[in-house]
Each structure stands twice: as C-alpha cells, then as structure tokens.
Amino acid sequence: MSKFILIFLLIPFTTLFGQTLRFDLMVKYSISLNGFNFERSTFGISTNDNYMMQIFNNHDGSQTAKVFDLKSLKIYEYNVIEEKSNIESGEIKFVYLNTIPFSSYFPNISYERRINFDFEKLSTENDIETLNLTFYKNKSKTKPKGNLELKVLNSELNLFPLFRFTCLHTLECINELNYHKPGLVTSAISGNGYEKYTLKTFEEISLELSLPN
Fold first, then answer.
1. Which domain holds residue 183?
2. Using only C-alpha atoms, what is the Rg of the chain?
3. What CA–CA distance (Å, rounded) separates 91 from 196?
C-alpha cells in the first residue's frame, strides 16, 4: 500500500517531454522607433514557422528562453545554462520552467484579429527586391493606414516570418502576414520614416530543446 501511495504522489511532479525542436536559424535586427534605438534577436526553424524563440538577459545575470508556439498560442519558458561556450556554439542547456498562455504576454490584438494588407513589387536590382507592404483599414483595401518599404534578399528559404516576429510588434504572431516568395528582409522603413529596421546578423545555428507534453 505504501509503494502505491509513493508512486501516486510522484507522478504530478514529473514533467513529461515530447516534441523536440531544433532551431537552426538566427536573425538580429536593429530597430528604430520614433528615435528610440535597440536590437532584437529571434531564433527560428527553417522547416517550421510555427515556433520562434527569444533569449532574454535577466538582472541577476541569468538568461531565460521563451519559445512561442504560434499555432497553439502557448509560450514555453526555460532557464538557459551555458555549459562550455556561448550561445552561438550551441553548447547550452535548456531547463524547462513553465508554460503560459499568449494572453499573459501579448495584447489580444497580436493574435486574434485579422489584418488587411498587400505586397507590391517596386523594383529588382541584382538579388534584391524592393517591395511595398501596405496595411489597410478595411477589407476592401480602399483605405490605407500605413506602409513599409522592404528590401528583400533572394534566398532558398522564406525568412519573412523571422522579420515579422522580430520587428513588427502587435503583428508578430499573425501567420497570415507572410510574403509568398523566398527571401530575407534586409531593411525596412515606414512611409513616415518613424520606423526603421536593419538586418545586423543572419546565422545558421544549432540549438535543441524538448517541449513538455
């Protein structure tokens, strides 16, 4: 009887892990919003746009990773432990902490609403396409409310989701906002000049972690 009770008590405190994620891409953009400048990095998976990861530096010197599941609208949090070298080497360990819903991190506008937009090709020079991304107030797309001019470098992969998640706050989680061709956004500027985004780093990396069941 005592053995049965012991097993019963242990099960609730054991986290079972299932799907393994292998992040193999990293981008870093410099961002300027109304004169406020900062940099932001995102880790992605070349074969799956539903998962993005960002690593945050804490005040005590530790690091926390957040894995964003854009399909199930969950965020998985991990402690980041460097084992032998730095993040770029891939020699780090992720220790699972907890899972939180999107609603506790993002405003609802980030993942519930539908948006109206269009891409327009402006020019092509060498391997760079210049595009105009226009956002509209209405479904019929007759009332524009803002635009971005994008420089997109031709590539084998569609890397627009990494740009969207890293740079376009309140739109980062809307998978519908995607360019139909392969390419890497190298820069973007809003029509009024208040928003500027510049690619600083694009790397192939190797980071692996497991999601809890």
1. 110-202
2. 20
3. 33
Q: Which amino acid is at 84?
A: K
Q: What is the pLDDT of residue 181?
A: 92
Beta strands across the sheet bearing 48-57: 92-101, 74-82, 63-69, 48-57, 36-45, 17-33, 195-212, 184-190, 144-153, 128-136, 116-125
Which domain-ending residue is among 75, 105, 135?
105
Average pLDDT, the chain: 87
- Residue 8: inside a domain, yes or no? no
Residue located via tokens 């012991």: 6
Judged by average pLDDT, the poorest of 5-9, 29-33, 63-67, 185-189 is 5-9
Domain check: are 116 and 96 in the same one? no
Compute the average pLDDT of residues 71-75: 91
Task: Out of 8-12, 94-98, 205-209, pick the least confident.
Answer: 8-12
Average pLDDT rounded to a whole number, residues 127-137? 95
Structurally, the chain folds into a number of domains equal to 2
| Nearest of 50, 53, 73 to residue 65 by alpha carbon | 53
Same domain, yes or no: 58 and 126: no
Query: Per the structure block, which two tokens stand in for 142?
Result: 């007759």
Handedness of CA 137, 143, 149, 152 (dihedral sign): positive
What is the rounded CA–CA span in Å between residue 111 and residue 94?
A: 26
